[in-house]
Design a protein that fits this description.
Layout lengths: L15 H8 L1 H20 L3 E4 L13 H12 L3 E4 L9 H7 L2 E2 L9
Parallel strand pairs: 1-2, 2-3
Helix pairs in contact: 1-2, 2-3
């Protein structure tokens, strides 16, 4: 579709968090801080974010804490926020509604 994609921080090492948690709390903390800071730069350097909020462990349209922080950072920086599926019912629902993301309902052609 002609969009340039930047993958999230840590995308290329998907299981590292669990491994670090088992080995060392200090290493996990440093990793997590690094990933959060790196992701801020990714958001800052892009026009929008696309959240792939699929079902996870039985929770429909799941958005976890780290993803919520990414959405908030994009909102704070005036970036567009796209959700592939509707806003989930969870602890962040009111805040997500207030940030007014574009809900794509699975239709990527609506990104613009």
């Amino acid at each position: 579709m002609g969009h340039e994609v930047t993958f999230p921080a840590g995308f290329d090492i998907p299981y590292i968090e669990g491994e670090l948690k088992k080995k060392s709390v200090e290493n996990f903390i440093e990793f997590k801080k690094t990933m959060l800071r790196e992701q801020e730069g990714n958001i800052r350097n892009n026009d929008a974010i696309l959240v792939l909020n699929f079902e996870k462990k039985g929770r429909k349209n799941y958005i976890g804490g780290a993803t919520f922080l990414e959405i908030y950072k994009a909102f704070e920086l005036g970036k567009k926020v796209f959700l592939i599926n509707p806003i989930p019912e969870n602890i962040f629902t009111d805040e997500l509604v207030g940030m007014n993301p574009v809900v794509l309902n699975g239709d990527l052609s609506r990104i613009g």
